[in-house]
Structure formats: structure tokens, C-alpha cells
């Protein structure tokens, strides 16, 4: 599936990352691209738009993102679960993941890492702070550009439970009327 | 609702935090307790069991967790949504949140911060690394004890979308057969 995408102000990406979905991280360095599956990330700030994540040193992507200081965080939907699992269970040392999984690499606007066209959203990231990479494999990214599908409003996302199991996102409920205006 | 709880090995808490739920952080310092609602957290390591999270300096809880170097991360279920929103829209400066929201403070085993009895799970945390608190309000916690409801296996959790809206966790699917044994 492919989506028509629109720009989203980068301070609004929390809508898609705060609920905790599994994401795909795409990267490029020295003519090579790769994709990894990632579940350990958090929003850290609205402005600048910061995201922190763990990329373990055992991942082939670790060296690509560390060298290039860039990546794209892509949001897959639940229909892509077998691709998500396949990407997480292969290594870029052995496999060209774009080709192997039939995914389309698109040019990003502000980074050299490619967007994954088939994903619902793509967040272009530049390394904002490297201070915890050596100690924790923790990268702090600034999201510099966000591409999001124009529809549907609520994508069905995957949330990893460990042990090969995923929670699929369910219904949306509003409690807007209970919020203080300054909390919205 | 209250649950019968059992101990969970602390390296297994990813099952509950990696899917990205809204959590309640309870704290205690100098005879005062407080609770805040939090959505910006990530698992960082299995062993030691590390969780990183943003607690903004504007929260009354900030000083309590900073001084005590402890907290409890509590996992509320979807039936508690109005309590979760209420806690997020009031301040411990004005309100005793345990009393106001009818929640029960229970003694923890290894920290002075109280457990919230009505929550599905309670993770006792000690501050592991303060190096990013000043720059990002980012706390790195070690989970030293985990209490989890014996049933149900899959709690219905809340995932914040911003703008007063929540996603409620949906069905669980397994792709275990597609995983390499060393990835499980």
C-alpha cells in the first residue's frame, strides 16, 4: 500500500510516536542503505522536535546512523507485520532489505537516508546529541521534516510485547472536555 | 478495581512498557506524596532494567523525584481514563492526588515512593543516571522491583495521542513462528 502524504509540523509528531508503535529506521552511509525494526524510543521535546531511541551496537544500522548522523523513522501499519518481523530478524550484513522486502526507497528532503514509501509516515532525523551513545546506545534525534499520510486519520499500528507478540492499536476515545485548555 | 499481584522479573517489564502506554508516576519526599501522568518514556536496557523518561520541571513531581531519587511507575488500565486525565490536569501543589482521586497508596518494597494499588502493575525505580536531567529533564531509572497483576494477561491500556485523545490497546497477534530463536 502507498499513501498520499502531506507535511506535518514537526512539533506534532508526538501524535504518532507517543502511543508507542514499532517503527522502521532507515539509514544510508557510503552508498549502502539499511532498515531496522525499533521499539525503544520516546518523544523528548516538542520544539525542537526531539526523539530519543536505543539502537544496539549489534545492529548493522548502528554504524550507518553513527557515521552519517542521520536516519529516517518510518511508521509501518499493522498490515505490514510480516515485513516488520522479517526486517527485525535479518541483518543488513546479509540482505539488501529494500530489495528483499519489496520496499521503495524514496529521496528525503533534508537527509541522505531514504524514506520507506510504503509506510504511513516518515520522520527525517538529524543527530542532536551523541552524549549517551557510548554508554547506552541512546541516540537523541531532532526531527527536521515530517511526511504523514493524508488519510486515514488513525493508522492501525503495531506495538511490540516481546516473545514474538504484538498488540494492534484499537479504538480512539476522547476526553478533551476534561482537559484544561493549556494542557491541550 | 484491585488486582492480585505477583512479582515479575525486572528484565521482563518491556512487555508492559514497550507498547507505549500512559503511566502514572508516584513519588514521595519529605512526608509529601504525589502522582503525575506520563507518556514520554522508553525501555533502555533489559539488565540492568533501565527506563528513561521525561519529567518536565513544571511538574510538582519533578522536585519530589529529583530529591528522593526514587519513583514508582504504575500502569493504569483503560477503565481508569478519567482518573488518568484528572491526575494530568491537576497539580500536587493544590491537591492531594491519592485522596482526591480515591487511590490507595501502598508501601513499596525497595523505595519510599508509594505504589498505586488500583493500577495493573507497579515498577519500583531508583535513579540510575542523572546526567541528562538538567539539559532535557530526562531521568534514567533502574527498575528494582516489579509487581504485576496475575490476570488478565493482556491489560487494556491507554496510549496518548495528544489533543485529549487516547488510543485504547486492541487485539494481540503472534508472529512467533517467524522469529529467529535468538530474537525471542
TrEMBL record, chains A, B:
Superkingdom of the organism of origin: Bacteria
Name of a matching Pfam family: Flavin_Reduct
Segment forming the signal sequence: none
Domain Flavin reductase like: 15-167
Similarity-based family: Belongs to the flavoredoxin family.
Keywords: Flavoprotein
Any one Gene Ontology molecular-function term assigned to this protein's record: oxidoreductase activity, acting on the CH-NH group of donors, NAD or NADP as acceptor
Stated name of the protein: Flavoredoxin
Cofactor list: FMN
Record-linked InterPro entries: Flavin_Rdtase-like_dom, Flavoredoxin, Split_barrel_FMN-bd
